[in-house]
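FYI - complex with 6-O-phosphono-beta-D-glucopyranose, inputs then prediction.
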Amino acid sequence: MNTDILIVGGDGDLALRKLYPALYYLTLNGCMPENTRIFGMARSHNTQDAFLTKVNEWMKDNTGSLYDEAIWLEFSKRLTFVQGDSTNPADLKRIKDTHFSDDRDLIVYLAVPPLIFGKICTALEACGLAKPSTRLVVEKPLGDSKESFTAINNELRRVFSEKQLYRIDHYLGKESVQNLLALRFANDIFEPIWNSKHIDHIQISVTETVGCGNRWDFYDQTGAMRDMIQNHLLQVLCLVCMEPPINLDADSVRTEKLKILRSLKPLTEKEIETNTVRGQYRKGVIGGKPVPGYLEEEEGGRESFTETFVALKAEINNWRWSGTPIYIRTGKRLDRRHSEIVIQFKQNRTNLFADQLTQNCANQLIIHLQPDEGIYMRVKNKKAGLDARVPLEDRSMDLSFADNAKSKKHDAYTRVLFDVIRSDQTLFVSEQEVSAAWDWVDRIIEGWKSKNKKPVGYDAGSTGPVEAIELLARDGRRWNRGE
Ligand code: BG6
């Protein structure tokens, strides 16, 4: 396969931080198809040497022990800087005539704001680069509501078919998120108990220690609901809750995810009030260091009611899940960077050990997504020793795949770029999925607006607003705090 990858926004933050390293890791893993070439396109008048030096310095500083000079040399031979304005057909034509040919596949990665997606598509079309085989890669933010998503998407779809579009959600490229498919569908023991009859509730938490400082203006117009829940957390929820697809191809997996998004029960006005929590961080201490509050961040902080934390209770209205609450939470500047899925099983009421067991100590299956990947099953065990009764203790069966993680030489972007090169859309989000996720999220954001629901404060370095704890406490439950 002879493929050219054109990265528009080729000297920007995303390209530097994520895309070049991901493509380098592909080379490191021996997965870069031989004749692949990479073009970083930008308006700036860089020289090839200055461009390579910039990318190389970044990689040396940020890829740690995975930096290998020989691999870098191999990788850098594929990398070319091309100057031009991607919205200008004449510039694209010049690049096309100099570098591309019809017998090679073309992947165009738009690492630029969606505001100019439409113009770029028109320019690609005008200069003949929007061939039927061209693949176009885009990622969030794809709008800030269903309406704006539809407008952006229509611009893409005017030129490219759905089969040519790769909408990245980098959470789907994470090893542990993909492992959900293996866990659920390669291990038959889970299937009979993976439903509301046996599962009390599900928790999906993505907590971060970073703040919004260096992208304050962007974040302030976005907020945690649009930045994390509309995409990453709902995608994880889909993989946890979807029905088994008929096979693992893109259409089958996306069809099942879409059904979940469409069965999310719309929150009523009252539920938006009681079952959602918006928070915003105040100053505090993280890792022993004082950090500013959201409103005092150096790079923009000013009065704002944007949420940096969301917790909510969702429900899926279908045969399998009706009656099982799903608690979701995400936030910035919390006490730890930690993402996990908790499957809390029900406690048998006629339990022989009822005196020692409460709902909160029922079995749990815990899937750690990051920073450490692993799967743990919380079980009860008899405490060793002579005792008149059978005293129980909590133990974790560790199904951790830490060894896998250690041998891993790639990140989520590597995985998704690998799949774009292989033309596999399974880990990409369809237009219908994005649209359905916006339907559900828009309603909540509208509800917040109409009721003027302001975010509550929480200290940086804490576990988030106390209201998020109360959300579960009201149902007799609590967020998992196990390690
Ligand atoms: C991005 C969000 O999509 O995901 C960021 O815009 C967030 O705000 C990031 O920090 C989290 O990704 P990860 O892979 O670090 O969990």
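The CA atoms of residues 222 and 470 lie 26 Å apart. Residues 431-450 form the longest helix (20 residues).
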